[in-house]
Design a protein that fits this description.
By secondary structure, the chain is an alpha+beta fold. Helices cover about 25% and strands about 25% of the residues.
């Protein structure tokens, strides 16, 4: 599966981490998401200039998480069944773009204070 090949390309690169977000395998560079593999699709965050190139690939579309027509800005999704090798170039564009983002430091979760009323 091409999606697994792409993940294998990036998983061992410096500053790349793999995590689960909303139940999906997600790769981050410096704490910023650049790739997420959902149940039926893989998606990448791209620069506006790179979106037309991505949309030339058959079945590519803006990511619509709820499948209700509300698409997420710079996120382009592809079906997991895709075999078009141009997807490797799209992954590279996403990785390079997100690599320019500043380091994202995760916020520590603090325990909620309980409020007692008399």
């Amino acid at each position: 599966m091409l999606a697994e090949e792409i993940i294998a390309i990036y998983i061992d690169k410096p500053n790349v981490t793999k995590t689960k977000m909303f139940g999906s395998d997600t790769l981050l560079i410096n704490g910023n998401v650049f790739l997420s593999k959902m149940k039926e699709e893989i998606m990448f965050k791209l620069k506006l200039d790179d979106i037309p190139k991505a949309l030339q690939i058959p079945d590519a579309d803006y990511f619509d998480p709820m499948k209700n027509g509300k698409k997420m800005g710079n996120w382009i999704a592809f079906p997991l069944t895709i075999s078009d090798k141009r997807l490797i170039e799209i992954a590279r564009l996403s990785f390079e773009h997100i690599s320019t983002f500043p380091l994202k430091v995760s916020k520590k979760k603090t325990a909620k204070k309980e409020v007692y009323s008399k």
